[in-house]
Structure prediction request, 363 residues.
Amino acid sequence: MKVGARVLKTGVAIVLALFVAQMLNAPAPVFAGIAAVFAIQPSIYRSYLTILEQIQGNLIGAIIAVIFGLMFGHQLVAIGIAAIIVISIMIKLKLDKAISLALVTLIAIMEIQGDDFLMFALIRFGTVMIGVFAAFIVNLIFLPPRYEVKLFKNIYVLQDDIIRWTRLAVRQASEHTSTKKALTKLDNRVSEVATLYDLYKEERNYVRNKKFVKARKLVVYRQMITTTRKSLELLHRLHKHENELSSLPDQFNLLIQTRLDSLLTYHEQLLLKFTGKLKPEHSKWTREEEYLRGNEVMEEFINQIILSRENIEEEEFSSYHLLYILSRILDYEENLEHLDTLIVSYRSYHGIEKNIDLEQDFY
Prediction:
């Protein structure tokens, strides 16, 4: 079982919150630990936003708890009505993420009995805030996230798997059920990559030069993800129309295989080019040669469609499926060329990407 950074951070935040609460002789330090659990976030920026929401939510919960506690005492029904009011206010103010902790503050205050209700209410509110600030400090200094490394690692490994399955699919060498299961997993991994991209995008840089560099990186990473999506769409098409591909002439199948092998190799080279692991002269896209190859495949597609129109209707139906495959290939190629342009532009301004070490971070 792999223990992630967020799991470790949660444990450290709980310990820190309880320790600080005990050092300050808080009557119920457990509420600080509970607050720390709610306040842990996957990124520093989200932690900053969360602490602002939690402060507002706790204030609302504390104020409502004090008002209802003074008016109705410690009646169970009063606590329920107060909770409803707090939830309604929080939703109205779009503080949905802080509702849980606001309710914890509400209950922690309204269950207090005694003459010093206001003083204990203030102490309980402060105890909860200790947990919130403890979680923020842990997010800030303990195991700071490296989402750029995680993002590129996931893109690299995901694309490598897509390339392997595509090479099997275009040769009709993959087993249908296994490919179907793999496609489902690949779709889920693309969604995970998109989530990592959002987390990396949220990270803030306060140095002007770094802001500019990151803005250019975001453009490159976004195109990497788009190109990966296009390659996965192509794999879906190859899998869906594998029967039509298997019935094509061997010469035509060989043309498609050669074309796709060229594009897939080109994609591998682009990812290595971004990290400086590949010499520039070995990653050049010979446009004239590839243009001629593309025309050859296009002409052969047209010939197959013309031939299918002269045959039975089933063959005509399969020819339209071939058009879908051709469109995916062309779309994939265009995105690869655009990615190449962005990587070359980035490297010309900022040099080789040194923050990502394939051997250290991947293996």
Notes: The radius of gyration is 29 Å. Residues 307 and 316 are 9 Å apart (CA to CA).
